[in-house]
Amino acid sequence: DWHLHLRDGDVMATVLPHSARHFERAIVMPNLKPPVTTTARAIAYRDEILKALPPGSSFVPLMTLYLTDSTSPEEIKVARKECCGFCCQVVSCWSNY
């Protein structure tokens, strides 16, 4: 199971160095507040993660976003091009944002 809940802010700053030390990559879950529901937000979150990595780390965050009732087919195409995966709210732990 490659999934990882990095969260953001102080939690991410605490968790990320440990995760990066032990794993080369992880599927980063989208349940932030507010949740990651667009490709643009997934890319921004990935950039936040990369900036927070310890120097010299080669950790690769594999990004995901939630599929919602308002996720358009175009958004899915864009996400796929950006190598983002998808999570359905009903199957993700603690996804009731």
Give me a quick take on this structure.
By secondary structure, this protein is an alpha/beta fold. The chain contains three helices and four strands.
Keyphrases for this structure?
97 residues, alpha/beta, four-stranded parallel beta sheet, 3 helices, 19% strand, metal-binding
Using the alpha-carbon principal axes, give the shape.
elongated
What Rg do the Cα atoms give? Answer: 13 Å
Main sheet: which strands, in order across? 1-2-3-4
Helix/strand class: alpha/beta
Distance between the termini: 23 Å
GO molecular function, one term: metal ion binding
Keywords: Hydrolase, Metal-binding, Pyrimidine biosynthesis, Zinc
GO cellular component, one term: chloroplast
InterPro entries: DHOdimr (IPR004721), Dihydroorotase_CS (IPR002195), Metal_Hydrolase (IPR032466)
Write a structural description.
With 97 residues, the protein is α/β, with parallel strands linked by helices. The chain has one domain (3-91). The chain is built from 3 helices and 4 strands. It has helices at 9-22, 39-52, 73-81; strands at 3-4, 25-28, 60-67, 85-88. The chain has a 4-stranded parallel beta sheet, with helices on one face. It is elongated and about 35 Å long. The mean pLDDT is 90.
Mind sketching the topology for me?
Layout: E1 3-4, H1 9-22, E2 25-28, H2 39-52, E3 60-67, H3 73-81, E4 85-88
GO cellular component, one term: chloroplast
GO molecular function, one term: metal ion binding
InterPro entries: DHOdimr, Dihydroorotase_CS, Metal_Hydrolase
